[in-house]
Design a protein that fits this description.
Keywords: Membrane, Transmembrane, Transmembrane helix. The chain crosses the membrane at residues 6-23, 30-50. This is DUF2484 domain-containing protein. It comes from Paenibacillus silvae. By secondary structure, the chain is an all-alpha fold. Helices cover 70% and strands 0% of the residues. The chain contains 3 helices and no strands. It has helices spanning 3-26, 29-47, 56-64. The chain is elongated, with a radius of gyration of 14 Å. The relative contact order is 0.17.
Length: 74
């Protein structure tokens, strides 16, 4: 991989981290889901664990379950 590809993957991973944190603050499960995917896929590609890519969606779903909305019912 050349430097441009590595920099692009790092920028994608940073964007995923920002999305995941923002999604947790605003309690948006879908934003957390896509943020974790966007964060993990470039890291796994850089490390060379391409065979672990099918597990990313399961990890992202589990991470999105930690986001709980408060019920408006009293």
């Amino acid at each position: 991989m050349d430097v441009f590809n590595i920099a692009f993957l790092l920028v994608l991973s940073l964007a995923g981290l920002i999305w995941a944190i923002k999604g947790m603050k605003e309690k948006l499960r879908l934003m957390v889901f896509f943020g974790v995917i966007l964060m993990l896929v470039p890291v796994l590609i850089l490390v060379g664990w391409v065979s672990g890519l099918p597990l990313v969606s399961s990890v992202a779903f589990a991470a999105s379950l930690f986001v709980r909305k408060e019920g408006k019912n009293a």
